[in-house]
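Researcher: Re-running this chain for the archive, since the previous output was lost when a drive failed. Same request as before.
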Amino acid sequence: MPATFFLTGDFVRTHSDTMAEVAASHYLVGNHTMTHPHLSQLSPAAVTEEIRDADQQLRTVLGHSARPWFRFPFGEYDGRTLRVVHDLGYGAIGWTVDTRGWMGRGGGTPADIVSRVHEALQPGAIVLMHLGANPDDGTTFDADALPDVISAIRAAGYRLVALTNW
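Model: Regenerated structure tokens:
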């Protein structure tokens, strides 16, 4: 199934087993900074360092840069941070629906995730989901909902594509 993963450098460094699978699968991978900070609170030099450090981690595993794919942590950006990202050769990719699986129990249930995605489907929709468990409560709601999300997307007449096929 096609997918695009936006990964932090910290995730890449910490989860080398998962990264080996991602690299071998040829999934499209984008840069999501080194540590997932609020970039608008950092200096341009610190924003650059976050992006370059993550790119170095990704190069180590993938064998190439994640350019031109970048996702802002928290979806937060301003004109200054967007210029830094563009100057580094990236294009910023957002999303049209957030499953809120990252919120754990505070975001609902796996069934709520499926409903949220189904209600927001439209041509060109980008669904934001997260790998791993919620650090606060250990839930894996995005992973739990994924098979039903895929079924709902297909049942609505849409197909899943990676960004390069868009």
